[in-house]
Amino acid sequence: MKKIYYYPLFIFLIVFLADKIACIPVLLESGRRHYKAGQNILLGINPVWTADKIKQETGSTTVSVFGSSRSYLFHEWKEIPLKENYFSKPIAIETRSIVKASDFLLNYLLIRSMGKVGYKPNLVVLEFSEEMLNEKSPFTFKSKSEELILNSDELISLFPYLEGEGKRNVLFKILFPSYNYHFQPLLAISNISKGKKIEEETLFVEMIAIMNEKQPFDPKNVGFPLNSFSPQDYQARIIDYTNQLIQNDILRNYSYSSNEEGVFHATIDYLEKNNIPTVIWEPTVHPYFLEKRKQITGGNHFQKLKEKYISKASGNVRTLSFVEDPLKCDIYVDASHVSPVCIPEMADRIFSVAKTIPNFKN
């Protein structure tokens, strides 16, 4: 009977050994899952950082922008007219790092990827949007961690910041890497017998070709001043779109996620430890959607989290909220986005905050 107690250990050792066999490169590359969109972004971003590093070394002040579709407005300006000369050198603003359907995890991994090629921008501009804290959003730590294949360094770096299911999932992936790669034994056998490997995807190459040049906005699609929407446009762009975001998108079944908070915390710690000057900013949204969102989330999360994780004496990180301190530009494309014509004011205010960062050098 005593031998029964050894059965779980014996089973664990068999599974552990099978996992290590599956991680033999030729097996792994024959039986892993195809990379998905987020993985291709992470695999293909290094040439972007290398190009930015060269710009920096040849005399430019480099700014890397990370965020969602609310940050994508920066990508719609080839040159942003600034009221003041905030930089002593020419400025190069990198916007290919913006992913419309982004979340805290993807931004964290993209920021870490700069260090892997020995690049540190003069300034990081990182978006914080309250919806990113929703565990039930389509774009969350839970969904992205299932989509992405993270290496052991990335998993270990996240582990201390997670709780509950998130922590257990990361631990399991550290112990059993083949699970992380979604390894399929039958697929591996089939491909090896045919002399094949999983084909490398070209999605990122295509995406970079599209994103390589900034895309100026269409002057016909700049939106409307706050009080100038027609009844039809207000219904479609503000009320109906708000309902869509609440019922089926970023605010659906809202549930505050401690793991989303944890990844945000991990990002701040990484920026601090690596002395990367950063402005973390909170975009504004249309007042109608802002009020509806506040009713759902309780609001004020940015204020709470920055007080919790960012020291007032920080030499690297400063914050700016356009919810707490609104823009003068009150033109909106829809309930969730200001107009791209607001970017000059946004950039002026973000860069003026950057100038107060002790470790910011330009």
Number of helices: 16
Q: What composes the largest sheet?
A: 5 strands, parallel
- Helix-strand category: alpha/beta
Distance between the termini: 72 Å
Radius of gyration: 23 Å
Q: If strands are numbered along the chain, what order do they take across the biggest sheet?
A: 2-1-3-5-6
Provide the succession of SSEs: HHHHEEHEHHHHHHEHHEHHEEEH
Roughly how much helix do the residues carry, as a percent range?
40-55%
Please state roughly what percent of the residues sit in beta strands, choosing from under 5%, 5-15%, 15-25%, 25-35%, 35-45% or over 45%: 5-15%
Mean pLDDT: 86
Q: Report the principal-axis shape.
A: globular
Task: Provide the domain count.
Answer: 1
Low-confidence stretches: none
For the secondary structure, the number of strands is 8
Compose a concise summary of this entry:
With 362 residues, the chain is an alpha/beta fold. The protein has helices at 7-22, 25-31, 37-44, 46-57, 104-116, 141-147, 152-158, 164-175, 177-180, 185-193, 203-211, 231-248, 258-273, 287-297, 301-309, 343-354; strands at residues 61-66, 91-94, 123-127, 224-225, 278-282, 317-321, 331-334, 337-338.
Question: Would you write up a description of this structure?
Answer:
Pfam families: DUF1574 (PF07611). Keywords: Membrane, Transmembrane, Transmembrane helix. The chain crosses the membrane at residues 6-28. InterPro entries: DUF1574. This is Lipoprotein. With 362 residues, the protein is α/β, with parallel strands linked by helices. Helix 2 (25-31) crosses helix 10 (185-193), helix 3 packs across helix 11 and helix 7 (152-158) packs antiparallel against helix 8. It has one domain (2-354). 37% of the residues are buried. It is globular. The chain is built from 16 helices and eight strands. Strands 2-1-3-5-6 form a five-stranded parallel sheet, with helices on both faces. Strands 4-7-8 form a three-stranded antiparallel sheet.
